[in-house]
Each structure stands twice: as C-alpha cells, then as structure tokens.
Amino acid sequence: MTGTDADSIEDLPPSAKLVFKVLEYNGSLTQKQIVNESMLSARTVRYALERLQEIEIVDEDIYFADARQNLYTLDEQAIVADGGPDEACCAE
C-alpha cells in the first residue's frame, strides 16, 4: 500500500489517530493496554492497529511478560519520514 495518498496519518480514521496518540504519549503498549487508555472497544483498537501497521507506523513485537499478547510500538523513523507527529493530528 506504500506510495499512495493513503500512506499518511492524516488519512486515517479518527480511531487510528487516537491509537497513534496513545502510543505516542505512553510508549509501547499491548492491545489490552491501548483499549484501557483509549476507552475504545477491542475490535476498534484491533482495526486501528491494522491500519497503522499497513502504513508501517506501528511495529508489532512479542510481549515477553505474556507471550499471548503483542507489544505495539511507534516506528520513529516512519513518523519522521511522514512529517512528524504534530502534523499527524487533527486540526484544532
């Protein structure tokens, strides 16, 4: 999907932008932790994470404290290439 207009954070749905901000403020989190922090449903968070992974903004790793879960982290290099986190947020 790289190389299209849908590759930037600006083009994502609001739920994905919120998940992005939660990860930006809190660092690496599991899906369950993102659900608790964002107050979104687990299904919505899962969809948002899929969208963020499609544009290669979020990395998924094994959560060693509980191998049944994954740990999600923002890819700092991708964020810088996309114009930085400040441009990714909604207009105020």
**Total domain units:** 1
What number is the mean pLDDT?
A: 84
The dominant shape is: globular
Please count the beta strands (DSSP E, at least 2 residues each): 3
Specify the helix fraction band: 40-55%
From the N-terminal CA to the C-terminal CA, the straight-line distance is 29 Å
Low-confidence stretches: 1-6
CATH homologous superfamily (4th level) name: Winged helix-like DNA-binding domain superfamily/Winged helix DNA-binding domain
Number of helices: 4
> What amount of the residues lies in strands?
5-15%
CATH class annotation: Mainly Alpha
Structural class: alpha+beta
Characterize the largest beta sheet: strand count, sense, and whether it forms a barrel.
3 strands, antiparallel
Summarize the topology.
Elements: H1 14-26, E1 29-30, H2 31-38, H3 42-54, E2 58-62, E3 70-74, H4 76-81
Antiparallel strand pairs: 1-3, 2-3
Describe the 3D structure.
It is globular, with a radius of gyration of 13 Å. The longest helix is centred in the N-terminal third of the chain and has 13 residues. A three-stranded antiparallel sheet has the order 1-3-2. The chain is built from four helices and three strands, in the order αβααββα. The N and C termini lie far apart (29 Å). With 92 residues, the chain is of the alpha+beta class. The N terminus is likely disordered. A hairpin with a 7-residue loop joins β2 and β3. The chain has one domain: Orthogonal Bundle (Arc Repressor Mutant, subunit A).
